[in-house]
Please model this.
Amino acid sequence: MAVASAAGEVFGQRQREQDAWNAVAEAMREGLRVGGAAGLQAALNMLNRTDQVDFKHPVKNVFRRNVEQALNGQQTKGSTPDALLRRWGNRAETAAQAASEHKRRSTQRSSR
Model:
């Protein structure tokens, strides 16, 4: 029973990670929709919503910090807000897809 519990926890962690990456990707898409510095603020507002699941997930914390730094002018010089949002959104979408694929493969292996 302990093995099943440990496996369930691993799958739960993977799901939380995938959910966090999806939340970041969604926030970056919203930011791009709004555009510019206002888009950065819109993305941050989404990441700061306290009603979301796993608010303190490390992935979300990193992107909150990134967006806050961009709003304060502390991000890479020469990058526009839209370029940052696009880069971060692409990274988040890629990571979410990878987490989903990893979870799918793990599920297939465990069901054999």
Observations:
- DSSP finds four helices and no strands in the chain.
